[in-house]
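Hi R.,

Quick one: here's the Transporter sequence you asked about.
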Amino acid sequence: MTEVNSPPDGPKPGGWTRFVTARPRLSLLVALVLTALAVFAGSGVEKRLGAGGWEDPAAQSTHATKALAREFPGSQPNLLLLVDSGRASVDDRAVAAEAARLTARLADERGVTGIGSYWQTQSPQLRAKDGHQALIAARITGDDTTAGETLDRIAPALRGEHGPVRVSVGGPVAVRHEIQTTIQEDLVRAETIALPITLVLLVMVFGSAVAALLPLGIGIVAILGTNAVLRGLTEFTDVSVFALNLTTALGLGLAIDYALFIVRRFREELATGAEPLAAVGTTLRTAGRTVLFSALTVAVSLAAMMVFPQYFLRSFAYAGIAVVLLAAGAALILLPAALALLGHRVNALDLRRLLRRGAPRRTSPGTGWARVASLVMRRAPVFALATTVGLVLLGLPFLGVKFGTADDRQLPTTAESHIVQQHIRDGFPGSPGGGLDILAEGRATRAQYADYRKRLAGLPGVTRVDGPLVKGHAAYFTVLPKGEAVDQGTQHLVREVRATHAPFRTSVTGTAAVLVDSQHAIGERLPWAAGIIVVVTLLLVFLLTGSVLIPVQAVVLNALSLTAMFGAVVWVFQEGHLSGVLDFTSTGDIETTLPVLMFCVAFGLSMDYGVFLLSRIKEEYDHTGDHPHAVRYGLQRTGGLITAAAVILAVVMVAIGTSRVTNTKMLGLGIALAVLMDAMIVRSLLVPAVMRLTGRATWWAPGPLRRFHERFGISEGEPAPAPVAAKPREPQPVP
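And here's the predicted structure, written out as tokens:
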């Protein structure tokens, strides 16, 4: 059995080391029990998650939507039945009779209200231009979960062949439900793809199958724990189904990052001759501190999304913070206990041994990265300018970004609800779904309603005004715009309608109105979110390094590393390049909340890698006082590790990016690109070049801040004597 006690003359383990290694078997047993409970607690979480959340709950459009659904359910249908009469006309007597039977059947269903059809109203908007299709509209009541259950209950009996007609089910409730179902199926496929590939990559990194399984186990614990947290949150607030994808990606990615860093440092200590318990203690005092620090920076970036009112963004903050803390906690509690038990057996089952037979054995790790660092620092101005210009050029397409709302085109073209909505877009008059609904509240006379309607009809960009439909002291109008549902002209029309004088209180809703309100909410709070991220990042990096310049560099270079992601998002998903290869439908715009989400997640992950590199540079600089050597040594010791972690995380994100839902595809592929650009370009080339240009001034801080850091700062390395007298260290080979 591996000895887990330090020898009498060895260094005494610190308090945290004693805590996590005192009873390692008990710690792992408790973790196993808690994980099993998390599986039970988190089961069925996907069924309780919503597929919406893009609107501001305090916005005028949200108030109007809820009030109209309550007072005039027919004005806000979320279920559409597309009735196709084939070669016959929808006005054929047999078709009309069958449509009447379907309408009556729908009216008998509980949870369904506001039922209307072309055959009842003879509205031209509900009849296709070719006369072979028409619509039955209704509203399913309740929240996303309740509405989805109702749809599952009634849809099988409605869709399909009914005498002379064929019925397809669509509408917003069907779109949301199909998005939710598709994401659940895609997530299982993504995990099936990511887990075996990740295990192979970990074996390639570590060689040892035992060492490779440890990060994967930590990732699984983090994912299962976060699912349980999300299940608990659904009891108190709305949570987006899209958050499940982030849980999987960050759970695997960050847990693997943290475990890679800790296991690698533990093996380094073993290679120097340290006993297992002493190696665990040193690992926790060094790499463990960096992991804790890194987790805080990622959590802060994700927490910034909580300033936004849309539950789509807030859900990612909930899921992200939970998975980051669980990943870090598992890496700092369970992993040390496992390492203490394994000891030197962490290097067991070296699967690369066969590949090394007959090949020359490297005597020093990271030699290639040392050469890269030396080359970059010799030509620092060239590398700094070239990489900066290249990243800026890659980001230029984002200057042409257009914002829109998510709709059925998020789904694959074979999805039933997408097919229905596409038929409506292509074959029905008057831009169905693009109208503006106006709720009028308060006492008013017929003359006042007529005067208000006349004012609306006189606005530029208005095709016609329908209504009012009056009920008590409330009424609603529908304004049909000349343009598309969410183009710039329709968004301007929303503002014009809201500015139109009325002798009663008015609220405007509709697709364009929701978009205008969402953009306003994000624009109003974006400076606060950015400020939180920047200020806390500056503070945390200062506490890590004691430098004034390095935190500023970290923020600027991190932001620069994201330019390629934003440029690619516009070039690919907005402009539609590669849409055939990636199998998605381009809408010509980007959903408003996606850039915010992608920035927060990618910025946090970039800081994750930045902390790994800076902590090792800082540790070496504290020991030697040699700035160029410290930069070269830091890249030599972490370059391969950061690249391996980035590749593994990119694999997970690409697996998420195989989703059939466009927003999820964009999120996965975009962040994968950002992570790879950050690890392979920014950390490998731009950071060492910039640090070489700034020289020893990199570490400067004014006296008061220097004293503050000496008292409250956190460093990965142990305190060292006068650094200028120390000798640069050469890395030891790691098994």
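The CA atoms of residues 96 and 119 lie 7 Å apart.

Cheers,
M.
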